[in-house]
Amino acid sequence: GSSHVPGLRMHWPSKRPAPSDEAAQATSAGAAGISFSAPPPSDVQPASQRFSPPPAVPAAVATPTYDNMDFSKYSVSTYESDGLQDAQLARRERSVLDGQWIQNPRARQCFHNIQLGAKMGASVGGCFGLLTGLVVSISQRNPLVLPVSVIGGAISFGFFLGCGMIIRCEEVNRSALKSIQADVKPISV
């Protein structure tokens, strides 16, 4: 009966060797529900001999004393002048302002703020004037309405935003500010 194909053989696992006496005791103890680990080998060195001592501490680094430390990084990098060159510095500052018709720095800053507001308002007004001018010039079939609308929007918005920037130039009255802060009470929860 059996068919045998040459070259093909079945590979069966090899038989296990017979258990020794210790293994037989371990299997009988495992079957009883008790299991112990094997004792450690007796030829291992104790822990105190396995570890090497830490490396030696290098020679003590000298800590810097107060006299040797550099504290210049904590100081101000600008220094007061001796006062001998003040006249030349004042002349140089005045020559910078010679071309300007507003000499007071606060008034000059206020004027620049008003100018900035007028420019911003003119650009926004010109954009809105362009949009409305396009709609009106197309609906009325009159292209001359477009530049009038752009210029009119730019002038009106620029004027009102320039006037609005004057408010930012006013000096805040300290007593009025304190009274306003005193009137405002925090909300308690």
List keywords for this structure.
189 residues; mainly alpha; 50% helix; flat
Tell me what the structure shows.
With 189 residues, the chain is mainly alpha-helical. It is 50% helix and 0% strand. It contains six helices and no strands. The chain has helices at residues 21-32, 47-50, 86-96, 105-140, 145-166, 174-183. Helix 4 packs antiparallel against helix 5. The longest helix has 36 residues, at 105-140. The chain is flat. The mean pLDDT is 78.
Mean pLDDT: 78
Please identify the structural class as seen in this structure.
mainly alpha
N-to-C span: 99 Å
State the share of residues found in helices, binned by percent: 40-55%
Tally of helical segments: 6
- Gross morphology: flat
Q: Quaternary arrangement of the chains shown?
A: single chain
| SSE arrangement, N to C | HHHHHH
Q: Which strand-content bin applies to the residues?
A: under 5%
Number of strands: 0
Radius of gyration: 48 Å
Major sheet details? none
Low-confidence stretches: none
